[in-house]
User: What shape does this take?
Amino acid sequence: MKLTITLAAVAAATLTSGIASAGTMADVQARGKLNCGVTGGQAGFSAPDASGTWHGMDVDYCRAVAAAVLKDPNAVTFVPTTGQTRFTALASGEIDILSRTTTWTFSRDVDLKFTFAGVNYYDGQAFMVPKSLGAKSAKDLDGATVCIQTGTTTELNLAEYFRRNNMKYEPVPVESSADVEQKYLAGACDVITSDGSDLASTRSSFKDPQDHIILPEIISKEPLGPLVRQGDEQWADVARWTLNALMAAEELGITAPNAEKLSEGTDNPEANRLLGKEDKLGEMLGLDPAWAKRATASVGNYGEIFARNLGDKTPIGLARGQNALWTQGGLMYPLPFR
Assistant: This one.
């Protein structure tokens, strides 16, 4: 889900804080902690357990960055943000990196002046309905009531989809995602719509998840990924190449259990470069040679992260699909380490 925000609001936050965008890595290292902006609780992506320990794909990415930069995957302060506060928190310097199911769009990249590190999950807007409604397709939703969070591009996508298909709907406006879920379960609306992964996460928390279905239509493109402030190329490089290191590790067969052993040397030159055995990639980033090894050893490669948090053996039960490696028919294509 994506809330709209103006450049003026972000710029005001930056000016008020007096935070300069350059030198983020030095600030993080001096502080000894990475401040990572996440959702307040989206199972599979970022949510605390009963003991307060954070789990999820976006959480694991921040732990990997902390391992690379601070040599400690636990040196992270997770800062819950909302759709309304996430961009201001990043622009103002309250957080060093935003890892919060955020869609990479033109305006966020150019107008809001953020730099995306890449895509860690390819998603799209979908619809969820009670099985008892009998709908098999979004085309069956003509005349339905739809709970929708106001002020979002999800709301705009919904209106455009129904208009294109000559369908009508009755919006049930709500102010937060928690309200959407509450009203839906109370029967105040027939349908909820959000990113497909968000719907799967929400459904996994229901008492009877099998009584709800996600319809097959995907009505938008939602490439999700972590982002940082523009103007600090070193920090953007660290964010970008840590994400790529996790993907490349999967492609190269480097896992959390074997990363240390493989760092002694392999027959694959790219694996050797990634693990710090050859060349000086870490030095180019301002890090030590073992940065990527630590990132992978701490949380696993991209495939391990996906399986642990979102995969078919979790309550969320998502298939890899387009989030599989390019060698396996997906879109995940790590950049070359050379």
Remarks:
- The longest strand covers residues 34-39.
